[in-house]
């Protein structure tokens, strides 16, 4: 297993649209393992392959307090959505920044697990937020895109500056 490098906003590679996984094979299972380890290492609750510069439709998540219930979503699609909720969101690609975003309150999705088995999931609340946030990554979107232009510019400036001082 390996800890992967997480791309930081406004890195343009975060804009790449991920392709569906054609076969859930050992290379995908290794990617899932590495992404899960990377997510735990960074203390995140979700990570999309886009964020580690792999442009395939793969997401890992773990919303449990014990950090022992990893969830894998490969080629996820939203079949139904309902209602609205607003939640403060953060992102491993936008360090130390949180802002409220409006999302559907409940969703029904289908996805493949790491064995390539299709499953359906009904999610609401934080789990629904997390899935929608990560699916946005696969579409080349970041939660910052929902904020005002002014806020987007501020975050960009701050993170570009932060990247320079870290080099
Ligand atoms: Ni994110």
Question: In words, what does this structure look like?
Answer:
29% of the residues lie in helices and 30% in strands. The protein is of the alpha+beta class and 167 residues long. The strands form 2 sheets. Strands 1-2-3-6-7 form a 5-stranded antiparallel sheet. Strands 4-5 form a two-stranded antiparallel ribbon. The structure holds nickel (II) ion. Nickel (II) ion is lined by residues 91-93, 133, 137.
Provide the spatial order of strands within the biggest beta sheet. Answer: 1-2-3-6-7
Summing up helix and strand content along with how strands pair, one would put the structural category as alpha+beta
Q: Kindly state the mean pLDDT as a whole number? A: 97
Largest sheet: 5 strands, antiparallel
The whole-angstrom Rg is 15 Å
Gross morphology is globular
Associated small molecules: nickel (II) ion
Q: Give helix and strand order, one letter per element, not per position.
A: HEEEEEEEHH
The amount of helix comes to: 25-40%
- Number of helical stretches of at least 4 residues: 3
The count of strands amounts to 7
Summarize the model shown:
With 167 residues, this protein is an alpha+beta fold.
Features:
167 residues, alpha+beta, five-stranded antiparallel sheet, 3 helices, 7 strands, globular, binds nickel (II) ion
Topology:
Elements: H1 26-41, E1 46-48, E2 58-61, E3 71-82, E4 85-91, E5 94-103, E6 106-112, E7 118-124, H2 125-138, H3 149-166
Antiparallel strand pairs: 1-2, 2-3, 3-6, 4-5, 6-7
The chain binds nickel (II) ion.
